[in-house]
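Weekly structure sync, notes
Attendees: PL (lead), two postdocs, one rotation student
Agenda item 3: pending single-chain targets
PL asked that the sequence for the first pending target be pasted directly into the notes so everyone works from the same version. It is reproduced below exactly as submitted, 345 residues in total.
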Amino acid sequence: MRIFLLTAVLLSFSVSGVQARDQIRIVGSSTVFPFSTAVAEEFGQSTSFKTPVIESTGTGGGMKLFCAGLGIKHPDFANASRRIKSSEVEKCAANGVGKITEIKIGYDGIVFANSVAGPEVDLTLRQLFLALAKDVPSDAEGSPDQLVPNPYKKWSDIDPSLPDLKIEVLGPPPTSGTRDAFNELAIEGGCKTFPALKAYKKKDKKAYKAVCRSIREDGVYVEAGENDNLILQKLASNPDAFGVFGYSFLAQNMDKVKGAQIDTIAPTFDAIASGDYPVARSLFFYVKNDHVGVIPGMSEYIAAFTDEDAWGEYGYLTEKGLIPLPSEDREKIQSKARSLTPLTM
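Predicted structure, written out during the meeting:
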């Protein structure tokens, strides 16, 4: 059976005599991109394999490419700044991508940042929700039948203690895992501070999500693509604006931008690692198991990424902003990664 499956996979890699690729192809999250790039460069320099080709497509876009099928035209790995969705697993399976290994690589925080020349702000999750949600409550309890289109134009409209400045936020598009996580952790986190809206989840989960995870579309929130550098440039030219991106990007640009406190907790390495920072998430990459042994270097790349010199407490990825997993978690995940243990949801 194993020989039959391997033969079928090999056939999918050879069309009209075209041989299998000799270079790993990786797609996905812009947040994981600098980490995978660092590993890929080290991998290309320290092994006999070619340096992997990595595309920053966003988590959603990467999953779409990853799950499209087997063969040389499809990527081998997908980076993700959120866990793969069950619908994506089903899409993969429908296209023959039945065996996937999930590798959690560490943690990252989502920061709400502005230029170092901009105002200092301390925000709550509720204030973030009120600033960016599509519809907001008109009463203190957050009654679902008392929602109105977001009327807030300035931060001071939400709370007089906040700056008397127009609300302007630059962030990732819906295809981004950062956007998914920000909607869930920050926007929904603020939504749940309203008792009636929190209770609404038990009554109508679908409607609750529509209210608690929807970003306003009136121009206050501007989708800036998957390029964090573009957000950085815009923040530099407009100190009154804010941007949404991963902590790792903040850590690399602290001379240009600063992260706001959320619920009195600043986005720091230690606060994210401890779980105290309220807008933190796990980072992953996914392996197309049927490509291993066909595309050269895949097992070796997995070993390189899960080596202590890379993802460990003092590994070179921490210099890029990766928050490492606890040592016992790294040991378990490393074992599953190197044995290509299939994902179970």
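Discussion points:
- The CA atoms of residues 28 and 62 lie 4 Å apart.
- Confidence is low (pLDDT under 50) at residues 14-18.
Action: rotation student to compare against the earlier draft before next sync.
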